[in-house]
Every structure is written in C-alpha cells, then in structure tokens.
Amino acid sequence: MTENIRLMFTPEFFGAILLPALIGGLAVTICSSLLGVTLVLKRYSMIGDGLSHIGYGALSVAAVMNLAPLKVALPVVIVAAFILLRLSENSRFSGDSAIALFSTTALAVGILVSSKAGITNDVSHYMFGSILAMSKSDVILSVTLSVIVISAFIFLYNRIFSVTFDENFARATGVNAGIYNMIFAVLTAVTVVLGMMMMGALLISSLIVIPTLTAMRICHSFKGVVLTAGTVSVVSFLVGMFISLLFNTAPGASIVIVNVFFFLCFSIAGTVSRKRS
C-alpha cells in the first residue's frame, strides 16, 4: 500500500497518466451529474445505459473498419438519442421498450463484429472503461466538449428547469419544448460517449443516475439537487480513483461503489431528518 502511494506521486506516473485521467474524468463527471438531474426527473434514467450500448456497437464497427472511433460513435449516438426521444414521446412505444430494443441490438452487433474480426480485446476497454489509458488528445476532447455541455446547461438553465418539471405548461407559455429536448438529447449523447472512455458502456449510466438519486434523498429543490449531485459526483470520483490506485482495483467499479456508499449515507440521513420533523 505504501508503495502504491509513492507511485501515485512520481513525476512519471502523476504527470503522464494520473493528471490527464483526473482532468478528463472530472470534466465528464460534472457533465454526467448535471444532465442526470433532468434525466431522472423526466424518467429517462436508463437512456444513458441505452446510449452507451449503442455507442459500444458503433465503436466496435469503427475499430473493425479502422476508422476514428469517437468520430463514428458521436454522430451515431446523437442520432440514436433523437430517435429514442421521439419514441419515448410516442404512447404506442414506451421509452423503456425503445431503449431496450436499440441498446440490445447495438450491443449484439458490436460483440458480433468485434468477435468475428478477432479484436474483442482491443475494444473491451469501451465495455469496461480505461480512464488511466486516456491520451492527451482524449483529455483535450473531453475537456472541450465538457465545457460546451456545462456552458449550454448553465445558459439554458431556466428553460431546462421549466421543461423538466412541466413540459405542457412550458409549451403553453411559449417555450419550444421540442427544441430544448433535442438540445438536451445532444448534450446527453456527447456526455455518454465521453464517459465510455472513463467508465465503460456497462457503468456510465451510474454516473448519470446515482448522484442525482443521492442528492434527492436530502434536497427538495431543483437547484439544490443539481449542486449536491455535482458535489457528490466529484467527491465520489476523486475518492474512487484514490481507492483504485491504493488497492489496485478497477477505477470505474471503485467510483461506482463510492457513489453507492454516499447514496446509502444520504438515504439514512434523509430518513432520520424526516422522522425528526
């Protein structure tokens, strides 16, 4: 354990591996927690999971065709987000059913293509995440797109708030809810694709859902949930990374476990607070 702590702060490891991972991971973590509040409140919690599976399929096909993975996955996931949103609004095809159909199909295609081409190991990091393997270009891309996502969320905060809580009322007051839903779908798609590099397709939805559920245990306002979810997400990421490096565990899984720990703590605190009142 002492040796692991010493390794963390060596110039070679900290500067070349750990620092880029922390910068890129924090950027994606903040985006995920912010967008997660609206997704959970609108009952689109599983859209992150569905889009990540679709992204895995696109990344696998791109790898087989020797194309730039992110340049292929990003537009595919954005289009999928549009389609899922439309289907979710269609009463004849529920959102959960649409997500299940698209995600399982894309995941099967990705596994089939990668196994047939014999590159299963090459694309496995998209399934399980590889935050410590993020390159300088990956970090720059993650930070750039994350700044765009966070800026858009802050700039459109009031509109997002109104569409989240009462879309029909927002439409009645002249808000073009459809456009804001589409913008939000794009922001979510971008965040999911970026998050796949860090957490993998299997765990990225946890960054979106768990911090929001945690914040909702004790907060009762939209702004309070947003700020608390962001704080919990950042702290969970940092603690999870430290535990991962200290005990040689998988970074993504460690971060999720810390998030779950905070959820349990906040749930207990919320229960105690309600009983006292």
Features:
277 residues, 13 helices, 0% strand, globular, mainly alpha
Explain what this protein looks like in three dimensions.
It is built from 13 helices and no strands. With 277 residues, it is mainly α. Helix 2 packs antiparallel against helix 12 (222-247), helix 3 (47-64) packs antiparallel against helix 11 and helix 12 (222-247) crosses helix 13. The model has no long low-confidence stretch (mean pLDDT 81).
TL;DR?
This protein has 277 residues and is mainly alpha-helical. The chain has helices at 2-8, 11-41, 47-64, 69-88, 95-117, 120-128, 136-155, 157-165, 167-172, 177-199, 204-216, 222-247, 251-276.
In whole angstroms, how far apart are the ends? 44 Å
Number of helices: 13
Low-pLDDT segments, ≥5 res = none
How is the biggest beta sheet arranged? none
What would you call the structural class?
A: mainly alpha
> Radius of gyration in whole Å, from Cα?
19 Å
* Oligomerization state: single chain
- Please, what is the average pLDDT? 81
3D shape: globular
* Secondary-structure element pattern, one letter each: HHHHHHHHHHHHH
Strand content: under 5%
> What is the count of β-strands?
0
SSE blueprint and pairings:
Elements: H1 2-8, H2 11-41, H3 47-64, H4 69-88, H5 95-117, H6 120-128, H7 136-155, H8 157-165, H9 167-172, H10 177-199, H11 204-216, H12 222-247, H13 251-276
